[in-house]
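Researcher: I'm preparing a figure for a lab meeting and need a structural model of a single chain. I don't have an experimental structure, so a prediction will have to do for now. The sequence is pasted below. Please return the structure as tokens so I can convert it later.
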Amino acid sequence: MELVPLHDLPSRALRPLLREESQHWGEELFWDWTEVASAVENGLDRRALFGSGVREHGMLVAYCYYMVDAGRAIVGSVYAGEAHRDRGLEAPLLDTVIADAQARVGHERVECQTLFSTTPEADQRFSRAGFAGRRRHYLMRSLGPLPIPSANGLRLRTVRRDDLPGVSELIHRSHVGSVDAALNLTYASPALCRGFVDTLVLRSGCGRFCAEASLLAEDEKGLAGVVLASELSQTNGHICQVSVDPARQSRGLGTLLLVSALEALRRLGLRTSSLSVTVGNGRAYALYTRLGFRLRKEFAAHAWVRPPARIELPA
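Model: Understood. Here is the structure written out token by token.
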């Protein structure tokens, strides 16, 4: 066994492992990972990805990477091939990548969501390295017909490109003071939310953007809520984001948006839908389970900032 920096490897060295990884996430999460795998290869070729791999007899059998965005390092998947799991490879590999991300000059913050991990030890390793974290669940449901609630005077329509600034600002306002905002820099400002929304809508950052199921709710005061959806595979739709204006919450608007998006995904011929939620977000979690979503995989969101700064998580 040999630990090697990804920077020392051509992308073709990682290709067989990425091919296997794509199949793995397709089966476990109903997520077509081929475009992500291609982006990882391109990132290696451009020297834009960092991390390490484990090589045995000249072949990569495990790897973990991180990328840099907006002054933070974001740790991606930690993956070991099926024949090499349960051999204690992933945890020390992740330790190496975490230490490198924390030590590299210019990274004042490191984040990770451990959905794409083949080791149950991942969350413990982030905690040991000083990260703050909260449990999250990847939920799924079959797409059967659902009764759509009354709109109560709200107007629903699909999201247009010129809506994106307002959508970004709404998403930011709906996350102020939340655990998700503390653990994910994406929600820290309207500008960072705009980058997140552009990635979802314009660059297919979470599967292929689904315009038909991405909806705005408006009333006489303007934008009241939004749901953004994508297609993770030919059979699975994904709810990327549901946000309601804080002044209009607890009135059933989230339910209306979510049910309307799920019905749109069903009409498109998709068979299942998925979403992720922080376990401590009791209101959202209760809504999702009431609508038939069930646990597919448990993971966690983690964040670290360089001392003396610290992550403050709301109670």
